[in-house]
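Exercise: predict the fold of this chain.
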Amino acid sequence: MAMSTALWSFALVVGLLTLTPGLDTAVILRTAALGRRTRAWGVVLGVQTGTLVWGALTSLGVTALLTASQLAYEILRWAGAAYLLWMAVRMVRDTFRGRGEAPEEAAGGGEADTFSGGWRQGTLTNLLNPKVGVFYVAVLPQFIPAEARHFTTGLLLTGVHIVLGTIWSTVLIASATALGTWLRRPRSRRILDRVTGTVIGAFAVRLAVSD
């Protein structure tokens, strides 16, 4: 397989994956919709940081441990499920606590609009999802030409995924910002957080019960 063919083929696969609604999409949309643009961009960078880590570890062969060791996968799976469930419960719980608060404090207003806070959230959300690691183990090596350097080419392909993910995240943030005035009303914010919290909780349950 030629390098150009590998790049375009991998771009098509991860492009379709990026467009598929998932956990990262839900977190980015919710954060941007609540007017926390700085935090939203932090989430985006955190998600892409996680993607880079997964790509680098896969290129080094480290993530093969996830498929070779049931214990390693189970530890990461339960840690990820616990983190997502905690995030979901806190999100929904805060919508009830915020009924009597000022609009800017209601519906999860406890989250500061900081880049570092968003980066931590995005990074943890991505790294604690073992299915991202398994995806890279299963897919990335197939697009590395036999004559190419494994680590360098793996990072190059991962970079393609990061670029596409960042472009799509930009579209998500712009779309959410356009509806920001309506979504930042107290009632709308409570509905948004309850829906997003439910979606994240469903991801947590799915991760916990999946093999």
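Check your answer against the key: The chain has one domain: 3-12+22-209.
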